[in-house]
From TrEMBL, chain A:
InterPro entries: Gal_mutarotase_sf_dom, GH, Glyco_hydro_31_C, Glyco_hydro_31_N_dom, Glyco_hydro_31_TIM, Glyco_hydro_b. One of its GO terms (biological process) is carbohydrate metabolic process. Belongs to the glycosyl hydrolase 31 family. One of its GO terms (cellular component) is glucosidase II complex. Keywords: Glycosidase, Hydrolase, Signal. This is Glucosidase II alpha subunit.
UniProtKB/TrEMBL annotation, chain B:
GO terms for cellular component: glucosidase II complex. Transmembrane segments: none annotated. The keyword Calcium applies. It comes from Scleropages formosus. The keyword rRNA processing does not apply. PANTHER family: GLUCOSIDASE 2 SUBUNIT BETA, N-LINKED OLIGOSACCHARIDE PROCESSING. Residues 1-23 form the signal peptide. Heterodimer of a catalytic alpha subunit (GANAB) and a beta subunit (PRKCSH). Binds glycosylated PTPRC. Residues 309-337 have a biased composition (Acidic residues). This is Glucosidase 2 subunit beta.
Length: 910, 505
């Protein structure tokens, strides 16, 4: 019986694959109309908010203001909490005052309880309360009826909440037919006046063949935000769409629900593998962010009056006056949890990044080699294949740091194992790579084959660490190994156990140059609804519904922790993940999933990574060459050229495609690809320094131009070029048969230098550049100093001790500045022991200077040496120092050495 | 500072080559081969080897790249396009890219590339040299023996070629004979038809007479069928070996139809034509079992005859049985699976139709024999036809999961070891080695299609070996197979072994 049903399942999956051979099968994934809560919420009309603030319930404490809200339709009370956070942020929380049972609040994503600052009541009357958000006349206005919040600065409204009256909070309620509350409930009206409890989709929902049992009934939440003066909004990855988010009027909202989408389509709002519910708004004056802190399925509607729609109305008039101001309205809808929003008030782009980083942390600082070139394929067939590829890079003199193994390396898709006939001696294979100072990544997915002979499975089962189905048994789904269980990564004990599996004595055949790739962690469940886990699966007290978008985040967290632990906390981990959430930047790299070998997919890799960078996840890349299908030689070359300038640089290919190692396309193309990779390696010192900064400050590595030129409106929608850090502008060639590109060089009165020819160009112009197949248009900002290493070797480790070249690009004022960051490249000692060099480089007045990051005018007055013998002479830099010697006490005192305490020096006693 | 000292040391090194007991000392900058030593004269300024620039000699190997061609830094990693010469005494000298100097990895077997990286490199040149000499010696032996085998193959191919040519003209000559045979059959048929005609004309005939006549007709028609069936090579004669494919005719019942017994059945002759066969038929008709499957009702009778005989299969058939003494039963079985026998069709035909078909059979079979031969002769079996012996052969290799089968100049296939259907990995395409070594690679194309992918294809790499065998298979890319195949036919004339390993002095 078991095998029979397994066969049927596998057949079904195969049929599914066949069915979607051309592109994504949209029918496998829900539209808003097919998602009961989204449909319900979206049917609400603006301007009819039933919520009223009960001002007399206001309580003010040191850290927050609380206030009750009431839904006048059903008399359900909500509790509003307002926080003023350090660093110019406001947090707004809304929960039921007395929920039937607790509602899910996202754990583990915030790096700490955000520190608060005191709020004070500026004024209040029966219509509302005005709270002070600190100086600069920044106020938070609470209006009572209908309830709304406005954040203003002086006369200007920055942002309004519930201004369209789309706040909706579906409170928990007993099930009508199963409880003694049944009759009582009959009399309670639903929050939606047009609805009653018989509406389909409240207590059960069916999509295709899958029924969601919804034991808690309707629990969705929604809130709208208005951004006056804003025409450009960004973020909420992951979508295969442009950088600037589009109006969703007349179409589906942007969806955030981590899904394994087979052959995804471009330029639409469908959900993909990861979700970061952070939206940035920008205009020439101000940049802000909204962090909708919810891990359930979420839909985001965006509308804009400048997109030809006028959906908001008179409600703003009392502060705004004019009705001609451009405005963007956002509405967030989530299936469960609570409303918890961080409003990051900027005002500059860099401030928003800092604010967001203070909540969810910064990019992990990866080992240097992870920034180099990665060679992957599904699959390198066996050890001999790996040996040949490794050798191929040497034969063709192409650098490479990592060779990757996909799922076929395992023994029957049992992760942490090796196929005994194809990879019988992994240690030997890893040693071969070590011999060339290269490394390897092997895949470890979270679906665990149900097989009593498999250690990982039997431990998970005996320790009872699997996710449960709605009936309390271990949840099982179909994935690569066949029937599989899914560890409950939400539990700290599961994560601790998982991390311990990476210990060298647990993970047989692993060594310190083996790193990890977490794929399929949405989680992917081939026979589940929308190819993922059933929402009524159970994680302890919570439903999968509540925390779906967190699953992948936790998988990567536990894996990274495992890699740290196996080295006893010494070595930095490197873990690639496909699924992600807010905060995933702390655990490694992400890639844009299973793209295709098409020019449009090459183009979209730029906005996809830019949007990820804007919300903290800097370590982003796309499969070079495209995963599905086979690229033309021209596309492959162009993709290497573009990928060399994206943070995560990995070539990858589907197993059904012909081989495409860089040397398989004739000597000319090999040379072109080699050149692209060499440019990457030459810039590794700059990349490393950018990552160090991203780690320290949370500033993105790949930046839209508006981040550095916030007042230049022509850059606001630009996503075919970008900045790396502040100083390199990259405009990859992404058109087939291109003869030229037009790059926009920003900055009135600034200059840019072509990094290949050193030709100088003025800023604030559209520059047409003729291109050939070897062209990679990149420009260095006048006024910057970029460190490079021009001796390219077969891997970044081989270049460790190589000398540096500084490229000093002068500004029109003949000045430049830059920096140099160096550490051992792979351990935590930069952090634990402060072992690093960080120099500031400046060029001014025809002098190039390197100095330490921190300087002081303090100098050394004297040195007293106890227990000394009397020297004949004491010298500092060849000159003698005066000294006194106390023979009785054997104390030697050196008089006025005089050097700055920050300088390097040595004193010689003779 | 530490570096500078090392670079000074690097400037001039003492190159010690210890070979066969001699010690030779040659002074030259690090990384310079002997052949270029004269360009590096420390007494003179150095001119980049591309002539682009002249620099003071102390800038040679000073760890800064001055020459565009990299020639001023033969011993450091400073130039992106430089190369370093490893003397590798005891093994082969070699050049490595400058980027591998002091990168912590031992590239030269003498370890000279890692003079300042902290890597401790063992000198493995002697060991490598010894191993290489051994390998070369082994290879030389194989090559030698293989080359001898190749000479034989060439001889055989020549003979085979001649035989085929003469058989071709023989076939042309016997075209007349075939026509005669057709005539003979026509006579047989007309004789058989005569009673029927008379019956028709007269409308009334005694039943016994009529039946006897029909029986006779059937007998003769049957005999004609059998003749065709037995005449495997369609030469118009049934011979002893052709008869021996029918062991059921064994007169003494010992299970073996010996030459003598067969000859006995043919009336003492080695072979008989159709007329003679008529006389012998009564000796065997009781025991004879037809080779064709029992006829099944067919609605395909008016099919175009061309579609009944797929050309390729008949080619194969003819190719497999082109010799008098070839009685390959396997081939026959294969073919019977695939081809509807003309006789099967004949069974269902009226006398009149049979007549027409017999003529067609003969007309058709003759060109098949020609074409098969012509096709075989037209194959490119290499400059001296040394690959001809592979034609119509098949070689197998069994791996963990599959049995791979290579039939050179025909097809490659794969069959699961534990049951399952065979998959075509490609049909003969062409020789596709590099221009200077065209006969080192075979390409088989247009195999079974892959889901979402190309049709399967196989590249066969040929290497010199005494045995003819498939030695490995792999699928480096989905649906693109790679086979390694050894054969004496690619063995080159053995070179003089003594010149294989040089030591630089």
């Amino acid at each position: 019986m078991v095998s029979q049903s397994m066969g049927a399942l596998s057949l079904g999956w195969f049929a599914l694959c066949l069915g979607v051979a051309v592109a994504v099968d949209r029918g496998n994934f829900k539209t808003c109309e097919q998602s009961a809560f989204c449909k319900r919420q979206r049917a609400m009309k603006a301007g009819q908010s039933p919520y009223r603030a009960l001002l007399d319930t206001l309580e003010l404490s040191d850290s927050r203001v609380t206030l009750q809200l009431i839904n006048d339709n059903n008399k359900v009370h909500l509790l509003l909490e307002l926080y003023r956070l350090q660093g110019n942020m406001t947090r707004v929380k809304i929960n039921e005052l007395k929920p039937l049972k607790p509602r899910f609040e996202v754990p583990d994503v915030l790096i700490a309880d955000p520190p608060t600052e005191p709020l004070s009541v500026v004024s209040r009357d029966e219509n509302g309360v005005v709270l002070s958000l600190g100086d600069e006349a920044r106020r938070l206005i609470v209006s009572a009826q209908p309830f709304r919040l406005d954040i203003v600065e002086g006369p200007q409204v920055l942002l309004s909440l519930n201004s369209r009256g789309l706040l909706a909070f579906e409170h928990l309620r007993p099930r009508k037919d199963t409880s003694t509350f049944g009759k009582a409930w009959d009399r309670i009206k639903c929050i939606f006046s047009s609805e009653d409890d018989n509406q389909p989709g409240l207590w059960e929902e069916t999509f295709k063949s899958h029924t969601d049992s919804k034991p808690n009934g309707p629990t969705s939440i929604s809130l709208d935000f208005s951004l006056p003066g804003v025409e450009h909004v960004y973020g909420i990855p992951e979508h295969a769409d442009n950088l600037k988010l589009k109006s969703t009027d007349g179409g589906d909202p942007y969806r955030l629900y981590n899904l394994d989408v087979f052959q995804y389509e471009l330029y639409n709002p469908m959900a993909l593998y990861g979700a970061v519910p952070v939206l940035l708004s920008h205009n020439a004056q101000r940049t802000m962010g909204i962090f909708w802190f919810n891990a359930a399925e979420t839909w985001v509607d965006i509308s804009s009056n400048t997109a030809g729609k006028t959906v908001f109305g008179k409600m703003l008039d009392y502060v705004q006056g004019a009705s001609e101001t451009p405005q963007t309205d956002i509405r967030w809808i989530s299936e469960s949890g609570i409303i918890d929003v961080f409003i990051m008030l900027g005002p500059k782009p860099a401030d928003v990044f800092t604010q967001y980083a203070s909540l969810t942390g910064t990019q992990s600082f990866p080992p240097l080699s992870a920034l180099a070139y990665h060679q992957c394929r599904w699959n390198y067939n066996d050890q001999e294949d790996v040996r040949a590829v490794n050798q191929g890079f040497d034969e063709h003199d192409i650098p490479c740091d990592f060779i990757w193994l996909d799922i076929e390396h395992t023994d029957g898709k049992r992760y942490f194992t090796w196929d005994p006939s194809k990879f019988p001696k992994p240690l030997e294979m890893l040693q071969d790579l070590t011999d060339k100072r290269r490394k390897m990544v092997a895949i470890v997915d979270p679906h665990i084959k149900v097989d009593s002979g498999y250690k990982i499975h039997s431990e998970l089962r005996s320790k009872n660490l699997y996710v449960k189905n709605k009936d309390g048994a271990d949840y099982e789904g179909w994935c690569w190994p066949g029937n599989a269980g899914y560890p409950d990564f939400i539990r700290p004990d599961t994560r601790a156990w998982w991390a311990s599996m990476f210990a060298y004595d647990q993970y047989e055949g692993s060594t310190e140059n083996l790193y990890t790739w977490n794929d399929m962690n949405e989680p992917s469940v081939f026979n589940g609804p929308e190819v993922t886990m059933h929402k009524d699966a159970v994680h302890g007290a919570w439903e999968h519904r509540d925390l779906h978008n967190l699953y992948g985040f936790y998988v990567q967290m536990a894996t990274a922790e495992g890699l740290i632990q196996r080295s006893e906390g010494k070595e930095r981990p490197f873990v690639l993940t496909r699924a992600f959430f807010a905060g995933s930047q702390r655990y490694g790299a992400v890639w844009t999933g299973d793209n295709a070998a098409e020019w449009d997919h090459l183009k979209i890799s730029i906005p996809m990574c830019l949007n990820l960078n804007l919300v903290g996840i800097s370590f982003c890349g796309a499969d070079v060459g495209g995963f599905f299908k086979s690229p033309s030689t021209e596309l492959l070359v162009r993709w290497y050229q573009a990928g060399a300038y994206q943070p995560f640089f990995r070539a990858h290919a589907h197993m059904d495609t012909p081989r495409r190692e860089p040397w398989l396309f004739g000597p000319e193309n090999t040379a072109l690809i080699r050149e692209a990779i060499l440019q990457r390696y030459a810039l590794l010192p700059y990349w490393y320094q950018l990552f160090y900064h991203a780690y320290l400050t949370g500033q993105p590595i790949m930046r839209p131009l508006w981040v550095e030129y916030p007042g230049d409106a022509s850059t606001f929608a630009m996503d075919d070029q970008y900045l790396l850090g502040r100083d390199l502008l990259v405009h990859p060639v992404t058109e087939e048969g291109a003869r030229g590109i037009t790059a926009y060089l920003p900055g009135q009165g600034e200059v840019w230098y072509d990094v290949h020819t050193f030709q100088k160009h003025n800023g604030a112009q559209n520059l047409y550049i003729p291109v050939t197949i070897s062209s990679i248009p990149v420009f260095q900002h006048g006024g910057s100093i970029i460190p490079k290493k021009l001796r390219i070797r077969r891997s970044s480790s081989c270049m460790e001790n190589d000398p540096y070249t500084f490229i000093v690009a002068l500004s029109p004022q003949r000045t430049a500045e830059g920096e140099l960051y160096i550490d051992d490249g792979h351990t935590f000692s930069y952090r634990t022991e402060k072992k690093f060099i960080h120099r500031r480089l400046t060029f001014a007045n025809n002098t190039l200077t390197s100095r330490s990051d921190f300087s002081t005018p303090s100098w050394i007055e004297r040195v007293v040496i106890l227990g000394a013998q009397k020297p004949n002479k004491v010298t500092l830099r060849m000159s003698s120092l005066d000294f006194e010697f106390d023979t009785a006490m054997s104390v030697l005192t050196l008089r006025k050495p005089g050097m700055n305490v920050g300088a390097d020096w040595s004193i010689l006693l003779q | 500072m530490q570096h500078n000292v090392n670079w000074l040391q690097a400037l001039l090194v003492l190159s010690l080559s210890v070979t066969l007991g001699w010690t030779v000392e040659v002074q030259r900058p690090r990384g310079v081969p002997l052949t270029k030593r004269q360009f590096y004269d420390e007494a003179k300024p150095f001119t980049c080897l591309d002539g682009s620039r002249t620099i003071p000699f102390d800038r040679v190997n000073d760890d800064y790249c001055d020459c565009k061609d990299g020639s001023d830094e033969p011993g450091t990693a400073a130039c992106p396009n430089g190369s370093f010469h490893c003397t590798n005494a005891g093994y082969r000298p070699t050049f490595i890219p400058s980027s591998r100097i002091n990168d912590g990895i031992c590239d030269c077997c003498d370890g000279t590339d890692e003079y300042n990286s902290g890597a401790s490199c063992q000198n493995t040149c002697k060991e490598l040299g010894r191993k290489e000499r051994e390998a070369l010696q082994k290879l030389a032996e194989i090559t030698k023996e293989g080359f001898l085998l190749k000479q034989q193959l060439i001889e055989e191919a020549k003979k085979g070629q001649q035989e085929k040519q003469s058989r071709l003209s023989e076939l042309q000559d016997s075209r007349k004979g075939h026509e005669d045979k057709v005539e003979a059959l026509r006579t047989v048929k007309e004789t058989a038809e005569q009673p029927e005609k008379e019956a028709k004309e007269r409308h009334l005939k005694a039943w016994e007479e009529h039946k006897a006549a029909l029986r006779l007709e059937k007998e003769k028609a049957k005999m004609a069928e059998v003749f065709l069936e037995l005449d495997d090579n369609a030469d118009g004669f049934v011979d002893v070996s052709e008869l021996q494919t029918h062991q059921e005719l064994d007169p003494d019942g010992d299970g073996t139809l010996t030459d003598t017994e067969a000859q006995g059945l043919l009336g003492g002759a080695h072979k008989v034509d159709s007329t003679e066969f008529m006389n012998m038929w009564s000796n065997m008709k009781e025991k004879y079992v037809s080779e064709v499957c029992p006829p099944t009702p067919s609605s395909d009778l008016d099919k175009d005859p061309d579609s009944v005989y797929p050309e390729d299969d008949l080619d194969e058939d003819a190719a497999g049985e082109d010799d008098e003494d070839d009685d390959d039963d396997d081939d026959r079985d294969d073919d019977d699976d695939k081809v509807i026998s003309p006789l099967q069709v004949l069974e269902k035909l009226s006398v009149c139709e049979r007549e027409r078909w017999c003529l067609l059979c003969n007309a058709a079979l003759l060109p098949f024999s020609f074409r098969a031969l012509e096709k075989e002769i037209s194959f490119d079996f290499g400059p001296s036809s040394e690959f001809a012996y592979l034609y119509s052969q098949c070689y197998e290799l069994t791996t963990n999961e599959y049995i791979y089968r290579l039939c050179p100049f025909n097809r490659v296939s794969q069959k699961p070891k534990y049951g399952g259907s065979e998959t075509s990995l490609g049909s003969w395409g062409s020789w596709s080695g590099p221009e200077d070594n065209k006969y080192s690679v075979m390409k088989y194309e247009h195999g079974m299609g892959c889901w979402q992918g190309p049709n399967r294809s196989t590249t066969v790499k040929l290497t010199c070996g005494k045995e003819t065998a498939v030695v490995s298979t792999s699928e480096p890319s989905r649906c693109e197979y790679l086979m390694e195949f050894t054969t004496p036919a690619v063995c080159l004339e053995p070179p003089n072994i003594d010149t294989q390993v040089h030591d630089e002095f």
